[in-house]
Inverse folding.
């Protein structure tokens, strides 16, 4: 008898009952304490939903202007079509046939996969230019001098080509500055400059490696005797002059990130055989450690290139960590580290959770995640699938709610970089190098352009 | 027994809309529709999809689809539920298109302080629980409890008979309530 009322309680909580039913339910509730509790549970759940409205209530979505702009564009298009139809009806058939022949010839010669749209949408221009470092297609060997290409990912047009030395790499640097390190006669040559500006060239002494660039400073790591430790030093990018003596001995860095305000360096230590993986906070000017976070169980040497990215406001460092729980199944996680406190604020164990969602065993998914990690403008993180087990996957993690979306791009991915707006992600493929433009919001591939390269080393915006 | 307060509804101003001009495809008349309902539709889609950027795009698609369909409609038109129906159809397509959506719990063992992430998680407990439900259940709950539609209107928006919608809504409420209580206790 009581259970028959349950459905009515839910409807009563929503104010959906007719007066006679409402009266019957209220009489029943008055006589039944257990039923009142059952009813109260519906009311509490409903109140939670109603209160949840506030989550989006303060958000001001961009709807009015874009919708009216799209409507105006569609109307212009319709009017143009109508004019053509009325004014050139007689010649339209001949013109259409001519255009069809021209288009068919062009389409037949076009190298893009047939699944892509014929042209990327106009808004794809928002992605902004990207930089691709690699070995030119004409080079005889993979260790030949390399080149840095500046490309528009929407059209695939190469805006500039900058020759570099062999073994070149892109240094971690903020948008607007691009730094390339290449090896010339055993010494590192730094070429750095804002996009379009005249590059600065700087030669480093033997035993000194560049680790990051920020503002007008270059940070280097030099070998400290035979103990395998390093000392960090800050040099003026324009002149190579040291701003201060080298800092104290440190561990070998697996990755280095400069805080957006340029005051601190985050130095990710590869513990080597000691297994003492740590994250150090260093004073950027002196190289002196000012804080430390131990990362027990992480094995940074397990990765070819561990990646860490910092939020634009400098409050979070996201680090990709393998094997965080050695006693459990193989694991890959992304840690959100609160700055400047150096505490692990959140940890997303990607492999085991994704294994469950994909219907695989955790061990089979242990390497589902590849190396590249990039931060989109809206705060989401993008990480590549593992090149061996999951090569065409792109994972998007929303750190605010811990949601992961897996996209299958259909191409084996090599590198990724966030576009200028959160909607766009740029990627390169392995095999025959191709530049891909991915619409993250619509979760689709919108352009693919073959690159004039034999191999891609790095991608940056 | 006091009747539970309904969430605040938008003012009943549909009568003031120039429906004839809308049916004639007048863009200025349509702009009033965009101004009146655009933001609310975007927030509705953001609640369903947990993705503001996608919600903005689908709202534009919804409104443009409505503009194209308006000249073909005859008879009485309740514009707000009709717009929500188009938006819901877009959301359903999006549900089908998403290949993997998983909520990943945070680990407590390494948390050394009450972080911003944990506060956001706590605040969005309802969002997390809703995301564990199927798309139709989530849509029915959001339409009735959050957007303020009646059961009958929600049924029409999701394309169900009122009786079927009432039964499914009850099941959705039971699932939501149980999971919400369990998550609340866990925290």
């Amino acid at each position: 008898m009581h259970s028959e009322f349950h459905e009515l309680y839910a409807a009563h909580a929503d104010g959906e009952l007719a007066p006679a039913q409402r009266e019957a339910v209220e009489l029943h509730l008055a006589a039944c304490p257990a039923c009142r509790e059952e009813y109260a549970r519906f009311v509490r759940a409903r109140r939670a939903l109603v209160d949840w409205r506030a989550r989006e209530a303060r958000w001001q979505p961009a709807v009015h202007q874009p919708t009216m702009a799209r409507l105006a564009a569609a109307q212009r298009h319709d009017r143009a079509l109508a004019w053509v139809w009325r004014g050139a009806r007689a010649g339209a058939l001949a013109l259409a046939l001519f255009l069809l022949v021209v288009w068919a010839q062009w389409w037949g010669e076009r190298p893009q996969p047939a699944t892509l749209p014929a042209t990327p949408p106009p808004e794809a221009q928002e992605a902004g230019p990207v930089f691709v470092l690699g070995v030119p297609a004409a080079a005889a060997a993979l260790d030949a001098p390399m080149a840095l290409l500046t490309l528009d990912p929407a059209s695939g047009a190469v805006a500039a080509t900058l020759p570099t030395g062999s073994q070149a790499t892109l240094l971690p640097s903020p948008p607007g500055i691009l730094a390339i390190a290449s090896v010339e006669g055993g010494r590192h040559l730094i070429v750095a400059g804002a996009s379009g500006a005249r590059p600065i060239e700087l030669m480093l002494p033997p035993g000194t490696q560049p680790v990051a660039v920020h503002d007008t400073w270059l940070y280097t790591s030099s070998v400290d005797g035979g103990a395998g430790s390093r000392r960090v030093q800050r040099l003026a990018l324009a002149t190579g002059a040291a701003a201060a003596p080298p800092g104290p001995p440190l561990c070998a860095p697996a990755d280095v990130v400069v805080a957006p305000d340029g005051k601190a360096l985050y130095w990710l230590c590869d513990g080597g055989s000691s297994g003492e993986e740590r994250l150090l906070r260093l004073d950027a000017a002196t190289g002196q450690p000012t804080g430390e976070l131990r990362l027990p169980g992480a094995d940074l040497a397990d990765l070819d290139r561990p990646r860490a990215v910092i939020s634009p406001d400098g409050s979070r460092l996201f680090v990709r960590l393998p094997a965080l729980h050695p006693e459990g199944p193989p694991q890959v996680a992304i840690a959100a580290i609160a700055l400047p406190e150096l505490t692990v604020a959140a940890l997303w164990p990607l492999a085991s959770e994704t294994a469950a969602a994909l219907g695989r065993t955790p061990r089979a998914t242990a390497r589902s995640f590849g190396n590249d990690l990039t931060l989109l403008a809206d705060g989401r993180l993008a990480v590549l699938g593992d090149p061996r087990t999951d090569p065409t996957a792109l994972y998007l993690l929303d750190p605010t709610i811990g949601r992961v979306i897996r996209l299958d791009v259909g191409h084996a991915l090599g590198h990724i970089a966030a576009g200028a707006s959160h909607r766009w992600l740029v990627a390169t493929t392995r095999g025959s190098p191709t530049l891909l433009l991915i619409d993250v919001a619509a979760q689709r591939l919108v352009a693919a352009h073959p690159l004039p390269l034999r191999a891609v080393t790095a991608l940056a915006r | 027994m006091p009747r539970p307060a309904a969430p605040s509804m938008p003012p009943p101003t549909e009568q003031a809309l120039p429906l004839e001009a809308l049916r004639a495809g007048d863009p200025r008349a349509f702009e009033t529709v965009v101004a009146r309902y655009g933001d609310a539709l975007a927030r509705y889609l953001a609640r369903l999809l947990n993705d503001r950027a996608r919600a903005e795009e689908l709202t534009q698609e919804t409104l443009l689809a409505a503009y194209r369909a308006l000249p073909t409609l005859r008879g009485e038109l309740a514009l707000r539920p009709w717009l929500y129906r188009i938006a819901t159809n877009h959301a359903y397509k999006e549900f089908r298109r998403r290949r993997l959506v998983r909520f990943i719990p945070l680990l407590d063992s390494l948390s050394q302080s009450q972080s911003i992430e944990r506060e956001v998680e706590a605040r969005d407990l309802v969002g997390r629980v809703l995301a564990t439900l199927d798309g139709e259940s989530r849509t029915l709950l959001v339409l009735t409890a959050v957007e303020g539609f009646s059961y009958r209107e929600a049924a029409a928006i999701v394309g169900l008979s009122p009786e079927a919608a009432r039964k499914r809504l009850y099941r959705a409420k039971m699932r939501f309530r149980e999971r919400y209580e369990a998550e609340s206790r866990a925290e």
Q: What stands out?
A: DSSP finds seven helices and 27 strands in chain A.
